[in-house]
Amino acid sequence: MDSLIPTWSRTWTAILTGYAKHGRIEDARRVFDAMPERNVVSWNAMVSGYVQNGDLANARWLFDAMPERNIGSWNSIITGYCHCCRMSEARELFDQMLERNSVSWLAMISGFVQAEGYGDAWDLFVRMCRSVVRPGQSIFVVTLSAITGLNRFGLIGVLRTMAIKSGYEEDVVVGTAILNAYTRNGSLGSAIEFFETMPEWNEYSFTTMIAAFSQCGRLDDAILWYKRVPVQSVSTKTAMVTAYAQNGRIDEAQRVFDKIAKPNVITWNSMVAGYSQNGMLKEAEDVFLRMPMRNSTSWAAMIAGLVQNGQNGQALELFAELHRSGMNPSHSALTSSLFACCKIGDVEKGRQIHSLTIKTGCQFNSYVGNGLISMYTKGKHMQDVSRVFDAMRARYDSR
Question: For 56, left (φ over 0), alpha (ψ -120 to 50), or beta?
Fold first, then answer.
């Protein structure tokens, strides 16, 4: 009979997990409470369910009540705090862990990058390299994002050395991330030199270089690198669409777009942004409405385009439609909408968006925070300005 318990328990846990995955967290809890026997796996599943559904209070209460924990228990609750940029709580739990694995370190480093605590992310990476856990591909990639945020060119070389020592000198994903770090730190010469030494390239290596030249206004060089691509993919063609659009050559962007048999959502977004950036709102809206599928970036591109072209009321109407769709708005959509409120002096609408930033865990983002400060300052609500500033600063406390 005892030998049957693990299978039976796994079945209950699978049902619990299924409910949580589909947002039916109360049903998941009823299954958990009804289980005649629970083990660390079922407890972890319930904690993870609360985390996935954004209920950190119940997740933490259950975590604290667990009769037994494993490393997955700790990783689950820490990841939840990191996703909400609550890095003080995440760091407190992380420091209490007696044992950590690569998932633990990745959660914390990624969390600090998301919260724009780039120095903390780098410090954790260095600390990890001194531990028994070896950095993997994902950790190298996210740490390069931290270096980009710090804008410390010299650290790219340090990380390259660490990657070589860890056996990742020929990994194309890590190599492309290094390439991206060079371009984002404004080191185009170093990026070109590094690109030529890479033992292997992928489509993202080429798109990184095309984008870098385009952003520097060197469209002719972007075109030359585009022609070097051995096999043109949707990604490289999309990079060229963006390059043409950024440099005001929207007709050529449209011609490249038309040659893509099956454009993905990123490609469609490039055309929406391209038309918007060139003041062609009608064309941008036509593309937006024709999209077979939209993501948060699609909405953000259209909302930003409306704000940039003075259509603030229409931008807020579109943001309301986004909210009604059930899709979480991106940082960009929130920021653009807050600036729309600022420009038309609608503080009440801005307060509603502020509440949404808190609900979605976006209030700590620097762009969103600046949007809130601008909106409240324009309305002369200085107490609200102070509260926003203090909230942004609080994420760094207790480290």
Answer: alpha
- Decide whether 1-99 matches 294-399 in CATH topology: yes
Overall fold of domain 294-399: 1.25.40
Q: Which CATH superfamily is domain 1-99 in?
A: Tetratricopeptide repeat domain (1.25.40.10)
Q: What count of other Cβ atoms lies within 10 Å of the Cβ of residue 103?
A: 19
232 phi/psi in degrees, rounded to 5: -70, 130
Residues 13-30: b if buried by 16+ CB within 10 A, e if exposed: bebbbebbeeeebeebbe
Read off the DSSP letter of residue 3.
G
> What's the CA angle centered on 385, arms 383 and 386, to 5 degrees?
65
Q: Pick from 93, 90, 104, 100: which is nearest to 364 by CA? A: 90
For residue 79, the number of C-alpha atoms closer than 13 Å in the C-beta half-sphere is 19
- For 352-361, give one letter per residue: b (16+ CB within 10 A) or e: ebbebbeebb
CA distance 57 to 65: 12
pLDDT (0 to 100) of residue 399: 39
Whether residue 257 contacts residue 290, with contact meaning beta carbons closer than 8 Å, is answered with no
Distance CA 232, CA 217 (A): 22
- Considering the entire predicted model, what is its pTM? 0.80
Number of C-beta neighbours around residue 192 at 10 A: 17
Q: Are 315 and 299 in contact (CB under 8 A)?
A: no
The tokens of 262 are what?
A: 């099956």
Mean pLDDT of 121-125: 96
Quote the CA–CA distance of 316 and 240 in Å, as a whole number: 31
Give the whole-angstrom CA distance, residue 180 versus residue 167: 20
List Cα–Cα distances, 260 to 47, 235, 247, 257, in angstroms: 44, 10, 20, 5
Q: Which amino acid is at 360?
A: T
Output the CA–CA distances (angstroms, integers) from residue 50 to 21, 28, 368, in the order listed: 10, 9, 26
Span 281-325, pLDDT tens digits:
999 999 999 999 999 999 999 999 999 999 999 999 999 999 999
Structural domain boundaries in the chain: 1-99, 294-399
Alpha-carbon distance of 33 to 26, in angstroms, equals: 10
| 207-235 mean pLDDT | 94
Please say whether the beta carbons of 198 and 205 come within 8 A. yes
Q: What is the mean pLDDT of residues 60-86?
A: 93
